[in-house]
Amino acid sequence: MASTKGKVIKCRAAVVWKVNTPYSIEEIEVAPPKAKEIRVKIIAAGVCRSDLSALVGLNKKVRFPAILGHEASGIVESVGSDITSVKEGDHVLASFVPQCNNCKFCKSPGTNLCVGFMKPPEGIGYMFDGTTRFSCKGKEVYQFIGCSTFTEYTVLDDGQFSKVRRDAPLEKISILSCGVTTGYGGPVNIAKVKPGSTCAVFGLGTVGLGAAMGCRVQGATRIIGVDVNNDKREIAKTFGVNEFCNPNDYDKPIQEVLKEITQGGCDYSFECIGSIKVVEAALDSVKLGTGTCVVIGVTPAGAKASIDPYQLLFGRVFTGCYLGGYRAQQVPGLVDDYMNKKIMVDEFITSTLHFTEVNKAFDMLKEGKTLKTVLTF
């Protein structure tokens, strides 16, 4: 096969032309990577609720037409002239949290965020240089949080990918790009859950079950799963949940139930839904003095929570995390943990579809018929 290095690649992608419209499988053009970029052949892409939020307009920052998707694995097709960390043929995971490694955020050990992530409005939908590598039918197509993985080929900026070991199955580890990692890091990196503690996990999707798994790995002995879907009860046990509460089963707020059954409140709570009401309940469910609430779910843009300052004055800790506090260069360690059977990944994947069935995948997500769907290419 002739080399495609340095050439425009024509391939298929799932393009969203306007907000809240179905994906359309189109032939697109993908430009070669520039100096500090790589072009990647996507092997598998996870379907994430954040993609759904963008699709239906809850994420107001997304520009259309766009190629969504941000959770994926692939093989490096070509690299820009200034790339030294990977070469053609290397296996990588996409990362929606960039690392320039030069800004004050990147130089701080206390955060995984980067100034480059906080783009001004005019920069949203573009690579770091302010342009996109995608076009379709003569029109510019915008990129999504630096990744755009619902396409056979994409281009990633340096600092928005992780090189991973070649013996790890790309179809499986694709979901370590976001969902599992985002939830798992809450108790491991942010709360640093202590052995013997009591934890409540609000929302038992991929992120929530990742959080439950993190609580178990950290040695929590009581992990309470909170979800309105009773079907989550059994699968949650696989990831460490040993008690289940459905808020609809009680005539009092769920935080009052949790405080009652734990005799004062949980040691830790993790909000994994992205609901303001649930954020408030999660904070109120932890004990005074030492309780910690971690917000992991992405709430609708502009939403505001009502927090009584006394909740914090009396010692509760209220914090959050992005991608579980992991930097891109730390994700290969999670792949190692998976290969060494320290963490579960396969168990999260309940559906596998070809990427041309992307609309079916999102219908299943909306209907709660799948935990994690992976699209293959």
Automatic annotation (TrEMBL):
Zinc among keywords: yes
Classification via SUPFAM superfamilies: GroES-like, NAD(P)-binding Rossmann-fold domains
GO CC, any one term: cytosol
GO biological process, one term: formaldehyde catabolic process
Cofactor(s) required, per the database record: Zn(2+)
Pfam families linked to this entry: ADH_N, ADH_zinc_N
Span of domain Alcohol dehydrogenase-like C-terminal: 207-332
One example GO MF annotation: zinc ion binding
Domain Alcohol dehydrogenase-like N-terminal: 35-163
Highest taxon listed in the record's lineage: Eukaryota
Chain segments annotated as coiled-coil in the UniProt record: none
Keywords: Metal-binding, NAD, Oxidoreductase, Zinc
The family this protein is said to belong to: Belongs to the zinc-containing alcohol dehydrogenase family.
Name of the protein in question: NAD/NADP dependent alcohol dehydrogenase
Organism expressing this protein natively: Halocaridina rubra
Gene: ADH5_2
